[in-house]
Write a structure and sequence with these properties.
The structure is a single chain. The chain is about 25% helix and about 25% strand. The N terminus is likely disordered. The protein has 3 domains: about 160 residues, Sandwich (Jelly Rolls), CATH 2.60.120.260; about 200 residues, Sandwich (Jelly Rolls); about 300 residues, Transferase(Phosphotransferase) domain 1 (Transferase(Phosphotransferase), domain 1), CATH 1.10.510. The chain starts with a helix and ends with a helix. The protein is built from 18 helices and 29 strands. Bound molecules: adenosine monophosphate.
């Protein structure tokens, strides 16, 4: 397959970027396990103050997701130590790392042990000699750890740590033995910055409001609270200030929190001097400074910066000076890139000149090439010998990363092309036929009268039903995707442990929702506890049992006309049903079908279906047989006395809504009113389902059918039948779910309720008003969709919503669509309200 020229250009561009640009660290991406679990951290790099016995030495302190026996752990000899608070487990990462998350676990030894650290502290060091106690942004040092010996507890480090050595220090009252297994998450700190020295920030009084620009997380020394030396802090914490410096990313902090800022009046020379010390000599290509520029309040980015370089003891004579373009228009905060001309240094001193009364910085980052090894500076036994080692590792890392990016891009491009083809609506049937022809042909007793084929040949159909249902791009396997994210991974990985502990999930959040890192998707999927779904016992009874009214239709009276489509159970055929009206004893023309013999859709279970699929098929029949609403597709009869099992439903001449709307023919002729009319019908059908407390779980345009005169009926109860299995339908052992239509709580907590159907309705309405031109969140990969789900959970304003469709009035988007995607399920509207609101909008 040839890659298009554009795509090759894209690869080249990305590669070039990867080689030449190394951007500042992004704490949201920088969350990789650093090697306690995976073994990349060597035993000799894990040490401890003491251990209880040889079998609980430091090297056993590795967090363990997979093994499950939970036997090995580090357990200090706290009892014999007069001051157990000094005990620690130390990890040497061999180079500076940006650490954003830590995980801890206890020791259960398969029920024999029950040792864990309820609370602990962290200390860290960049050089191995001076140690700093970590504290959160509010000054708290103690981290709440484990509450049992099984579960992994992850804690975000806010602020993150930049260190090579990290110590975990259990806090205990000596009443119990403590054991720990740990993991660190983050990424390598490529800046190599060991410390910066700056004058501490000042206080501004803005319209009577105290605004503090001090470096509140600085971890070095502070001389009389004015000169900060030998530490790192807010300028390297990966958090960039907002345009309006009065506001910060977190609401709980004081105005000005995200910035370090200085007042011109305190600097008679007109500049602020900063000294940056690095781990070794490097070639610096540039420095990026994130500055505020709210000039209406006397704040502007710097006018000029002059940087001096030092590799040995003396500053070099020729500094680099840079003057950024003055911006008198935009008040947005921005990164200013200062070219450093590939200068060599281990220390850089920069003087930033004021251009207004205030200068505010929130981040400083450096881009440097590989280190320059200077023999005069590095005697044989000097620790700087490790410089070479670490740079070789960085270089190898970069090359591996580039190759991985290249491979990933090629795979993505190929994948997109393959899937685009598969999803090509027009060629869907062709694809089906081709697949059918390719797969083994097996004659089987299938007593439809095939009007075109078999009636001529006199033989029966030889449809095979052996094929594996092709996975549609709308359905994904969330547990697989979630496992890729370190913050979510433990929830899926600890299934084994949870099931041992016999738990569903541990509630944690203040709103009663479990912390996503504590929610267990797989255990919920496999939980038989139906209480997690909002279906009452009464309604369970309603759907349970056999339905005597669903009668067996003589299958010889079905005559095959054409194939309509294919679902996960098998094919759907259009058939003529001779005598169906008499059989049902009803005049079906009332339902809009005047054909005689009646045209029906026949859904057939493929022959090689296993027992589970067969049971599910029968359950779907049972569910559908009880549903009777003008906007729910009606089950007319069944053929279940002999194989293959069939369900006979009313025929919807215009197929599914997705394929209907995306057909170019309808592009111009469908009015906004018609589209909203369709949404009204779906809302009405859902209103009926919700009156039965029935959760559909897979509402989307692809699962709505279109009949004559734009009649819409909800179909496909394939996912809802799982209510009775307490687990997801699995195709070849995989749980595949429509993640782009699912609420955050369905993805992260496995919770499906009426409110999650409302969420899916919002997405369905969006599909309708965009004429199904693209998949929801088409610009996001599946992984990014899951990440976005995490943002909905965190609700820090970073979640991405589907955009307003071009023809959609503001009030439908803001008052209806967005309300369906509210984080709090209780605040989402009911289908009754949605139905009324849509009707009202048509009035
Ligand atoms: P399903 O197995 O229900 O997902 O159906 C697969 C495809 O068959 C759908 O996407 C429709 O295109 C078609 N189909 C299913 N049921 C009907 C029906 N009652 N009337 C017309 N087409 C149908």
């Amino acid at each position: 397959m040839k890659l298009k020229i554009m795509e090759v250009k894209l690869i080249a561009f990305v590669l070039l970027q990867a080689v030449t640009v190394r951007s500042q660290v992004n704490p949201e991406m920088c969350r990789y396990p650093l090697g306690m679990t995976g073994g990349q951290i060597q035993d000799e790099d894990i040490s401890a103050s003491s251990h209880w016995s040889e079998s609980t030495a430091a090297r056993f302190g590795r967090l363990d997701f997979d093994n499950g026996d939970g036997d090995g752990a580090w357990c200090p000899d706290i009892m014999s130590e007069p001051d157990g608070l000094k005990e620690y487990l130390q990890v040497d990462l061999r180079s500076l790392h940006f650490i954003t998350l830590v995980g801890t676990q206890g020791r259960h030894a398969d029920g024999m042990g029950n040792e864990f650290a309820q609370r602990y502290r962290i200390k860290y060091s960049r050089d191995g000699s001076s140690w700093v106690g970590w504290h959160d942004r509010k000054g708290r040092q103690i981290i709440e750890g484990n509450s049992n010996a099984y579960d992994v507890v992850l804690k975000d480090l806010e602020p993150p740590i930049i260190a090579r050595f990290v110590r975990f220090m259990p806090v205990t009252d000596h009443s119990m033995i403590v054991c720990m297994r740990v993991e660190l998450y983050g990424c390598e700190w490529l800046d190599g910055l060991m410390s910066y020295s700056i004058p501490d920030g000042h206080q501004m009084i803005y319209r009577g409001l105290d605004v503090f620009f001090n470096d509140s997380v600085y971890d070095g020394a502070s001389a009389e609270r004015s000169e900060l030396t030998k530490g790192l802090g807010q300028l390297t914490d990966g958090t960039w200030g907002l345009d309006d410096f009065l506001h910060s990313h977190s609401y709980n902090f004081w105005p000005g929190y995200d910035y370090v800022g200085w007042n011109n009046r305190s600097f008679p020379r007109g500049y602020v001097e900063m000294i940056f010390e690095f781990d070794h000599v490097r070639n610096f290509s540039s420095m990026k400074v994130h500055c505020n520029n709210m000039f209406s309040r006397g704040v502007r980015m710097f006018r000029q910066v002059t940087c001096y370089f030092r590799s040995g003891s003396e500053w070099e004579a020729d500094p680099v000076t840079f003057r950024p373009a003055v911006d008198r228009v935009s008040q947005s905060a921005r990164f200013i890139t200062v070219p450093l001309g590939d200068r060599t240094a281990s220390t850089i001193k920069c003087r930033f000149h004021f251009s207004d009364l205030w200068m505010l910085f929130s981040e400083v980052a450096f881009q440097s090439g590989s280190a320059v090894y200077n023999t005069s500076m590095a005697p044989r036994d000097d620790p700087t010998h490790k410089v070479d080692d670490s740079n070789t590792r960085i270089l190898i890392g970069c090359l591996v990363a580039i190759i991985a990016i290249l491979l990933a891009i090629i795979v993505i491009i190929l994948w997109r092309q393959v899937w685009q083809k598969m999803l090509e609506k027009a060629s869907r049937r062709m694809l089906d036929d081709e697949l059918t022809a390719r797969l083994a042909i097996q004659t089987r007793a299938f007593s439809f009268h095939h009007s075109s084929l078999s009636s001529e040949s006199g033989s029966t159909s030889n449809s095979t039903y052996e094929r594996i249902f092709p996975l549609c791009a709308d359905y994904q396997e969330p547990s697989r995707l979630i496992r890729k994210l370190p913050e979510f991974s433990q929830s899926t990985e600890r299934l084994g442990k949870l099931s041992k502990g016999n738990k569903a999930f541990a509630a944690g959040g203040s709103d009663g929702a479990p912390h996503y890192a504590e929610a267990d998707i797989i255990s919920l999927q496999e939980s038989s506890d139906n209480s997690i779904y909002s279906i009452t016992a009464v309604n369970m009874n309603f759907f349970a049992g056999t339905d005597s009214s669903m009668r067996e239709f003589p299958r010889q009276k079905l005559t095959f006309k054409e194939k309509l489509g294919e679902g996960q159970f098998g094919e759907v055929h259009l058939c003529e049903a001779e005598g169906m009206q008499d059989f049902l004893g009803e005049d079906l023309s009332i339902e809009g079908n005047n054909e005689s013999p009646l045209l029906v859709a026949v859904k057939t279970l493929r022959e090689d279906a296993n027992k589970n699929a067969r049971n599910d098929f029968l359950k779907e029949i049972r569910i559908m047989s009880r549903l009777r609403d003008p906007n729910i597709v009606r089950l007319l009869a069944v053929c279940v006395d002999t194989d293959p099992l069939c369900m006979i439903t009313e025929y919807m001449e215009n197929g599914d809504l997705n394929q209907f709307l995306s057909h170019p023919m309808y592009f111009l002729c469908l009015s906004y009113t018609t589209l909203i009319g369709m949404a009204v019908q779906i809302a009405s059908g859902m209103k009926y389902l919700s009156s039965l407390n029935f959760v559909h779980r897979d509402l989307a345009t692809r699962n709505c059918l279109v009949g004559k005169k734009y009649t819409i009926k909800i179909a496909d109860f394939g996912m809802s039948r799982n209510l009775y299995r307490g687990g997801y339908y699995r195709i070849q052992g995989r749980a595949v779910l429509p993640i782009r239509w699912m609420s955050w709580e369905s993805i992260l907590l496995g919770k499906f309720t009426m409110a999650s159907d409302v969420w899916a309705f919002g997405v369905t309405l969006w599909e309708i008003l965009t004429l199904c031109k693209e998949q929801p969140y088409s610009q996001l990969s599946d992984e990014q969709v899951i990440e976005n789900t995490g943002e909905f959970f965190r609700e820090q304003g970073k979640q991405v919503y589907l955009p307003k469709p071009p023809c959609c009035p503001d009030r439908i988007y803001k008052d209806l669509m967005l309300s369906c995607w509210r984080r709090n399920a209780k605040q989402r509207p009911s289908f009754q309200e949605i139905h009324a609101q849509l009707l009202e909008s048509l009035a």
